[in-house]
Amino acid sequence: MASISYRLKTDSEWNSIYLRFKQGNSFDYEIKTDLKAPKNRWSKPKQEILSTTKLSAVKVNLKLKELKNHIIKEYEDSKTDGTIISTKWLKEKIASFLNTKTNNAVIDDKIFFVNFIDSYIKKSNTRKTKKNTPVAKRTIQHYETTKRKVQSLENKINKRLKIIDIDLDFHSAFLNHLREEQHLKDSTIGGYIDDIRAFCRNADNTDIKVSNDYKLSEFFSPSYETNDIYLTTKEINKIYETHIENEKLSNAKDWLIIGLYTGLRVSDLLKLTKKDRDEEFIYKKTLKTKFPVIIPIHKHVKEILNKRNNNFPKRISDQKLNDYIKIVCELAGITEIVEGAKMCPKEIEENGKKKIIHRKKDGKFPKFELVTSHTCRRSFASNLYGKLDTLTIMNITGHKTESQFLDYIKITPKEYANKLKSYWENHKDLFE
Hints:
The chain is α+β, with helices and mostly antiparallel strands. It has 3 domains: 3-99, no CATH class; 124-215, no CATH class; 233-425, hpI Integrase, Chain A (Orthogonal Bundle), CATH 1.10.443.10. It is built from 16 helices and 9 strands. The protein has helices at 57-78, 87-98, 101-111, 113-124, 137-157, 168-181, 186-205, 233-241, 247-262, 266-269, 299-307, 318-331, 373-384, 390-397, 402-408, 413-426, and strands at 3-8, 14-23, 27-38, 42-43, 48-49, 281-285, 292-296, 337-350, 353-366. The mean pLDDT is 88.
């Protein structure tokens, strides 16, 4: 049976009290506590401080008794989860009980998952990537979102998750919570699982005890085949030729056309100014990837700039642009019923309170309802595919690999078939 005893090692005015934790021949560890006893006031037989005017012996003795009970309880609990008892384990249990100010936060970081994520995020603000560049702000923001999703599961199950709890059971519960309770798409959930695996890997590499389940194939990041649409060249020309009187809609239309012919993300598109261009090219270092791109100015974009005294359209918010370009596309007759996904309001209950969230819903809708600012970039890449070599397009869009690029573009099987048909018709001499 495990036993705990206290002793002093010095005979000074004030002496640290040491805790000895022993179990037969299995282990024998001794750790200094933050508690002290004055000279000549320690009773070895009674294992307590004798009455003295230098401190409240009653309070310290009570704390020693409670600490002893705490260690025994933690030890008994550890038998069920396979925890290895060590000097480190004992030190952490003593410090956590005594709420040692200097060590408590560090201990929490090594025990509780959300605390560890906080520590990981804090370090990410000064950490360098493999390419010796700072961790992107968007990446850190995604870590924060992942942390909130973990916390939402903790609130649901009314449990504070430990790092060791991040196993296949957690994976299953987390997926179910985000799918059923928060109605998130698998493509979004997959990003959170990627973060969680990175957190576990970092903990593992720093000798924090983790479940090895995060390494298993069953601890997967779910994916989802998006139904995002793109605008064909014919549809883009229809939009360009549509005359719109309303100033706000006309401004949004011009941004839409520029986006369709540059392939820039909306975060870069709406920040374009005169200094980002010359007569023939647009030069932009992208916000997300810091990737510098050079894009030739299409004749339709030149016409827009010319009518605006060589200025880009008026600055507009991403949300307003998304609202206005749907109206623009409807006016241009982009009304074909197509399969896709659009944002729809949905009522959920979180922490006992009802709230409205917006989630993508799959279905068949008029095409103009599915157009967003991101449609520009996807349309740009999809329309050029097969007309230019893939590497050239990738150097403009900033995609790192061909497989990543091919996953991104939206070419249907019928369109691939039409490309082959067109090729045969234009090269009949090769097949006769």
